Amino acid sequence: MLRNYIRIAWRNLLKRKVFTAINILGLAIGFGSSILIYLFLSYHLSFDGFHNYSDRIHRMVTEEHRDLIDYEASVPPAFAKTFREDYDYADYVAKMVQQGGLIMDVERNGSTDKFKEDIAFVEEDFFKIFNFPLLDGSNTISLSAPNTAVITETVANRMYGKTNVIGETFILQNDKIIEITGVLKALPKTTFLENEVFISFNNLEDFFGFAANESWGGITSNLQCFALLKQNQNVSHIETALLELPKEHRPESKNKHVYKLQPLSDMHFNPLYGGLDPMLLWVFAIIGLFLITIACINFINISTAQAFYRSKEIGIRKVLGSFKQHLFWQFLSETFVISLFAILLGGALALVFLPSFNALFELRLSWKDLLDLRFFGFLFLILALVSLLSGSYPGILMSRIVPVLALKGKLSHNDTGGTTTRKVLVVAQFAISITLIAATFIISRQIDYAVYTDLGFDKESMVMVEVPSDLEPVQFESLKNRLSQIPGVQNVSACLSSPGAAENNWGTNVKYHTNPEVEEFNIQAKIGDENYLNTFGIPLVAGRNFFKSDSITEVLVNEAFGEKLGVSKSEDLLGKKLWANGGSVNATIVGVVSNFHDSDFTEEIKPAFIAANNNWYSEIALKINHANTKSTLDQIGTTWSETFTGYIFEYRFLDERVAELYETEQRYLSLSKVFSGLAILIGCLGLYGLILFFVGQRTKEIGIRKVLGSSIIHILTLFTTDFFKLILVAGALATPIAWYLMEQWLQGYTYRVEIHWWMFALAIVSIMAITLITISYQTLKVAIANPIESLRTE
């Protein structure tokens, strides 16, 4: 019986090739998108689950309670030692400090090659907490001795051209000779670790003294502390016990610390501590569901419309003895065959577009990730669900056809499924598309607002160049003078970072003038020389710039500092004292600058001060003439390399750095564009299929209308009016849904665009235009045809 169902289904599908192709292509796009979304979700949901005791591994994090609550994925440097020695909650505790862009000199084949790597300085117990296996299969990883390192096989191949490198050495930062004591297997794709070179923690003091000290005075995001808890520990009980630590070690601080334990499984999905927003996964899953739903709606609409033309076939089958269940399973078989072809084509489409998908979301997914039982279970599930959902309703309708009416040709379209059902489904389809288009438009507006709005400083044609940390002040001045003489360089400034840099953001406590207590709020430190304002185009609103000096005696503050203090006039801040960073900054306020964004638009502008300190510079900012960019950059690189012969020259444009702040939003936008386009494409395929039926049904009517004098425009309007009415209904349904979703998304932004009615009207008009284009070809073909041919149509 089943074989007979499949054979008849195949014949019916071949008989109606166009509609079969439309159904297969629509479902294939839905299936292909679902496969890519499955890969995306399974990739993110499998992060760091491979460790032996992943459920017992926690990262120590801090809530900083001031006027606002800040969340830091770190703890003070002294926390690890105290937690290890004074408490009995963990088997192992270890710190990791990340340092980016360190130089490694490797001798190979008689020459020295230079590599720039992100380094992790780790305590010995780090590899007892995490299970990153060695290449030789042993479990002993020793980093207890200074000047030792463990690297991954990926790095070993890149630097040495082999993996058997135990005992080999490299020179770190042109100074320390480091010996390799172990080689790890290539790190899994699904791990929080981005570093592939691990050096003994005993070497940290040479590169990052603050993180190496046993201090409770502050927090750096470079440092992370991990613990492998003993079995059956109560995390809430531990966190309660840790409430006593700040009282003991930071009793006078207005910055109240609350230390928390973050599970390893939460690290990848907690945006408060730099993880991925779980909402992105939900958005992916919902969009995948939308695409499959739209494809199923297409199938149901076309199938129910097609039932009218198959009524005689069904009538004859019933007369010859077929039961309702036979007809139902016959149609379900046809649906299964179409779905099977569609899922095969969808898999092929997914593989074709996988590289582009990887590039879009910065992933490393492979077709090999599909070779597991879970994936095949997923395929079987969506194949069964789509076949059942798409085929059940048309199958039930066909099995209910009255054979007498069918054979006499007295069936109407309402008898084979009805226009009402199709209209409801088309409205749902249009509503989904309108929602996606409106969301895409609003997200795009918010990103444009963030990237192109005046940030309070000049980011165009600004080049940021890193400099070695051990550079002497005299060398800095010499380099600045040489760079300023290059044609095309307009301004040069030495600084810790740019005004709006995501990296090197440095917050500290602050005391204003004669106030005896530190303020409740934190202040951002922007370290730059006397050319900082001119180079970045930050305007003064009161006072003057500070003079060149070897020590911090004068500072500038922004308007937000006065606003936090409740000082209404910027001039009233001039001449007042500012104490910050535990007293290392104790200077007079000589100027007030206008506010500038020092982070992305999700956060409000914070109080900030600008001061000069030769010992804290790590970058040189250059304002260049964009007319001769390449030539100017070449000369900058030559001058830099002549000064630092042992280092690698690298530069970044500031506008690129600013754009990086909105990488997540850019991915949301790309996601919306891609899947909105797919939703519209699937919808257009369905519309094209429906219009084929409607035009075929009303061919004779069109001929009569033309004979009676109807114009082509009138006939085109006849077909489009009904669809436009459905689009307006869909727009009325989609607008409040899209408005609510986008309003919730924009709640995360302190500085945001407003949602206006015309944004949704634009989405509705866009769908109308796409619909008009989709149905115009078939409609116009019949409208301009000879009416005699139309009147001869049976």
Written overview of the protein:
It is a multi-pass membrane protein. One of its GO terms (cellular component) is plasma membrane. This protein folds into three domains: 2-42 and 279-449 and 663-791, no CATH class; 57-267, no CATH class; 469-646, no CATH class. It is built from 25 helices and 22 strands. The strands form three sheets. Strands 13, 14, 15, 16, 17, 18, 19 and 20 form an eight-stranded mixed beta sheet that branches.
Uncertain runs are: 404-408
Name the structural class. Answer: alpha+beta
The value of Rg in angstroms is 34 Å
Q: How many distinct folded domains? A: 3
Percent helix: 40-55%
* pLDDT averaged residue by residue: 82
Indicate the topology.
Layout: H1 2-15, H2 17-45, E1 57-65, E2 69-72, H3 79-86, E3 90-108, E4 111-122, H4 126-129, E5 148-152, H5 153-160, E6 169-172, E7 176-184, E8 197-200, H6 209-212, E9 223-229, H7 235-242, H8 244-249, E10 256-263, H9 264-267, H10 278-307, H11 311-319, H12 324-361, H13 373-399, H14 403-408, H15 419-452, E11 462-466, H16 473-484, E12 489-495, E13 507-508, E14 510-512, E15 523-527, H17 532-536, E16 540-543, E17 554-558, H18 559-565, E18 577-580, E19 585-593, E20 608-611, E21 619-624, H19 629-643, E22 651-653, H20 654-660, H21 663-697, H22 699-707, H23 712-746, H24 757-783, H25 787-791
